[in-house]
């Protein structure tokens, strides 16, 4: 089935303020339906950057895991997570633990790792009472909309992510690296261009430099691809930032981002990035049973504040090493 015939068969709704939405009649066997339409659905995601499939009637974790696996060549194991997730099976996770009243601003999942997911899969089992959409934004358009000065600097220098692992906030060493063994963590860091320092108290501080703009492997488009704003101190709620700075100091925050040369990123730049994302945001409220497929290179995603219970499952697939994301540790730059 071609992309155009799939669009006609599934009644794909295209609106400028929403992701593409495919309306389907609830199949008797959702995993089998997903397997039959896998290539055509993936083509829709490539064309539009994201596709919400409404009508699948996804009901439970096992069914979601089966659908995710039928749509991919296998799900990825998350490494370098910044916040805990609950795992329901190989590669099947809860959405990131994050306060319901605070937004998770636009970002590309694991854009600070050397090998990133090319495809994100989300399934809603319980829709929130209000809010909570997984919104999306076209990364090529965001890049084009950014003013020349910060865009060109980030293109030239990339960006730095600094992390200080603590037992109180964020993912633990074992949750992030899959092990608590110091030698194994060091091996992982060396293999993945992460500079690391063990602190006197036994905690770990890491720094990694990554490109801010990458080329899409299929379309050839340059895409704004990073978590510069999301993981920056100025995106935190003011009271949260103040508390963390008082607790850990300016240089000891659990995570923060900088320009590629190590210079601090000002609040004005972070506000600019988030405002540009806002101008290009498309959203559709979740309904129970929905499936959302997101091209993680072409499309950023966010999670909006919500009330009520919200259960969204997540999978990552199609591992990809973006062009320009080879080893970029401080040692490599000297």
From TrEMBL:
Keyword set includes Acetylation: no
Required cofactor(s): Fe(2+)
Keyword 4Fe-4S among record annotations: no
Any Pfam family hit: TauD
Listed GO MF terms: dioxygenase activity
Gene3D superfamilies (UniProt xref): Clavaminate synthase-like
InterPro entries: AlphaKG_dependent_hydroxylases, TauD-like_sf, TauD/TfdA-like
Keywords assigned: Antibiotic biosynthesis, Dioxygenase, Iron, Oxidoreductase
Alphabetical GO biological process terms: antibiotic biosynthetic process
Domain annotation TauD/TfdA-like: ranges: 29-316
Name of this chain's protein: TauD/TfdA family dioxygenase
Species for this entry: Streptomyces griseicoloratus
Organism placement in taxonomy: Bacteria, Bacillati, Actinomycetota, Actinomycetes, Kitasatosporales
């Amino acid at each position: 089935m071609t992309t155009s015939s799939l669009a006609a068969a599934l009644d794909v709704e295209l609106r400028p303020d929403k992701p593409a939405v495919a309306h389907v009649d609830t199949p008797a066997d959702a995993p089998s339906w997903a397997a039959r339409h896998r290539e055509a659905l993936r083509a829709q995601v490539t064309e539009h950057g994201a596709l919400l499939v409404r009508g699948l009637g996804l009901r439970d974790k096992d069914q979601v895991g089966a659908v995710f696996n039928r749509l991919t060549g296998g799900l990825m194991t998350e490494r370098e997570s910044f916040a805990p997730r609950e795992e329901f099976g190989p590669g099947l996770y809860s959405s990131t633990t994050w306060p319901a009243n605070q937004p998770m601003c636009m970002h590309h999942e694991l854009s600070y790792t050397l090998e990133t997911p090319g495809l994100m899969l989300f399934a809603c089992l319980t829709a929130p009472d209000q809010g909570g959409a997984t919104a999306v934004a076209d990364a090529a358009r965001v890049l084009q909309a950014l003013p020349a000065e910060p865009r060109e600097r980030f293109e030239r220098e990339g960006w730095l992510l600094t992390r200080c692992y603590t037992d109180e906030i964020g993912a633990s060493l074992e949750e992030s690296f899959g092990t608590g063994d110091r030698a194994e963590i060091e091996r992982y860091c060396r293999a993945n261009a992460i500079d690391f320092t063990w602190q006197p108290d036994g905690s770990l501080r890491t720094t990694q430099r990554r490109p801010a703009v990458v080329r899409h492997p299929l379309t050839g488009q340059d895409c704004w691809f990073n978590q510069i704003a999301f993981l920056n101190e100025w995106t935190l709620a003011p009271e949260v930032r103040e508390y963390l700075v008082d607790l850990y100091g300016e240089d000891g925050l659990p995570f923060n981002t900088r320009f590629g040369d190590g210079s601090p990123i000002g609040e004005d730049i972070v506000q600019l990035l988030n405002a540009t994302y806002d101008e290009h945001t498309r959203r559709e409220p979740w309904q129970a049973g929905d499936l959302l497929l997101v091209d993680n290179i072409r499309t950023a995603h966010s999670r909006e504040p919500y009330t009520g219970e919200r259960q969204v499952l997540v999978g990552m697939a199609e591992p990809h090493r973006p062009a320009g994301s080879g080893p970029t540790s401080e040692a490599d730059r000297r």
